């Protein structure tokens, strides 16, 4: 039953996230919202909704380790697993101007997460600051790119066409039904995933933080994986990189922030002593690779994949050994 709950939860999260994004993008187009704003806000929030619902439900159920582990593990998986795999499929092109803005923003977000995690408690005040930082980032980015055709602006517009190419062709009621139905599916998926993950942790005698940074993190990152792999196969690798940089910002500033505002998060010792440092290291690796040569090549992607395999193996060995 535990494995079935986890599998059902993941299916509902992935399917629900896709339906929610398509419906929301369709509604936004119907109301004349620009593709830049849709790509910047709706697609970013939409692909991160599975992580948000999972972390909020986990925290409300008293599994703060699962909630914090989900955010840390998702960001680690986004960089080392998803970008690594995407780069192996097709080298990732880097937009220097976008990297100049989003690179430091990701580094600062990772540093903020590290500082908060090491304090042992992420409270409501800290959550509000994170949410405010996300709002400032979105406003600044939109103002920088509004009315322009820079690679960064086109990247956000391209995300809309990639994840919801025919959304604007559907009628209003169908888009509304898709958005609402997708949200319901995500809520149901998060419920099953949290329930199954908690039961699995108890049955295996390991902490919910371990389940959070591994199974749950990879599961809730599946929308980003699908989007990035499709982009790589279409040779739109700049979208894949932008998707991950944006997702990691949303995860820390938005998901962690919202979850902490709803209920303060006690950070487990294992995350404080290991996972948060892996996240910081992965962020540094990503920025170094991205800043050298104007792309992330297949060899660098393979290094990322090996690093993720080593990280996951170490976490599971420590937990089960």
- How many strands in all? 4
Question: What kind of sheet is the major sheet?
Answer: 2 strands, antiparallel
In terms of quaternary structure, the protein is single chain
The tally of helices reads 12
Q: Helical percent range? A: over 70%
Structure classification: mainly alpha
- Please tell me the total number of domains: 1
End-to-end distance: 25 Å
Plain-language structure description:
By secondary structure, the chain is mainly α. The chain has one domain: A middle domain of Talin 1 (Up-down Bundle), CATH 1.20.1420.30. Helices cover 84% and strands 2% of the residues. The protein contains twelve helices and four strands; from the N terminus they run H-H-H-E-H-E-H-H-H-H-H-H-E-H-E-H. The strands form two sheets. The protein has a two-stranded antiparallel sheet with strand order 1-4. Helix 1 (2-30) runs antiparallel to helix 2 and helix 3 (64-89) runs antiparallel to helix 12 (298-320). The longest helix has 33 residues, at 172-204. It starts with a helix and ends with a helix. The model has no long low-confidence stretch (mean pLDDT 84).
Keywords:
A middle domain of Talin 1; two-stranded antiparallel sheet; mainly alpha; 4 strands
Brief characterization of the structure:
With 321 residues, the chain is mainly alpha-helical. The protein has helices spanning 2-30, 35-60, 64-89, 96-119, 124-145, 151-163, 172-204, 208-220, 222-233, 237-262, 269-291, 298-320; strands spanning 92-93, 121-122, 265-266, 295-296.
């Amino acid at each position: 039953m535990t494995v079935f709950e986890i599998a059902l939860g993941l299916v509902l999260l992935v399917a629900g996230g896709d339906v929610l994004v398509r419906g929301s993008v369709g509604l936004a187009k119907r109301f004349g919202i620009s593709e830049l704003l849709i790509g910047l806000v709706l697609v970013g929030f939409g692909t991160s909704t599975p992580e948000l619902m999972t972390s909020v439900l986990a925290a409300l159920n008293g599994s703060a380790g699962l909630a914090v582990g989900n955010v840390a593990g998702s960001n680690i998986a986004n960089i080392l697993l998803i970008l690594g795999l995407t780069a192996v499929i097709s080298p990732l092109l880097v937009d220097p101007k976008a990297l100049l803005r989003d690179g430091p923003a990701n580094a600062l977000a990772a540093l903020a997460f590290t500082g908060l995690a090491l304090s042992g408690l992420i409270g409501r005040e800290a959550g509000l600051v994170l949410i405010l930082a996300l709002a400032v980032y979105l406003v600044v980015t939109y103002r920088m790119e509004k009315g322009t055709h820079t690679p960064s602006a086109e990247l956000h517009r391209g995300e809309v066409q990639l994840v919801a190419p025919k959304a604007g062709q559907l009628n209003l009621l169908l888009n509304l039904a898709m958005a609402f139905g997708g949200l319901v599916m995500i809520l149901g998926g998060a419920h099953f995933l949290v329930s199954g993950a908690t039961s699995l942790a108890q049955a295996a005698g390991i902490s919910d933080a371990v389940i959070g940074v591994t199974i749950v993190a990879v599961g809730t990152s599946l929308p980003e994986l699908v989007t990035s792999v499709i982009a790589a196969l279409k040779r739109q690798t700049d979208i894949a990189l932008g998707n991950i940089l944006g997702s990691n910002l949303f995860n820390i500033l938005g998901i962690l922030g919202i979850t902490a505002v709803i209920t303060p998060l006690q950070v487990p010792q294992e995350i404080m002593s290991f996972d948060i440092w892996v996240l910081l290291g992965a962020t540094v690796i990503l920025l170094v690779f991205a800043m050298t040569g104007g792309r992330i090549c297949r060899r660098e992607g393979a290094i990322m994949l090996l690093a993720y395999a080593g990280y996951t193996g170490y976490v599971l060995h420590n937990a089960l050994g």
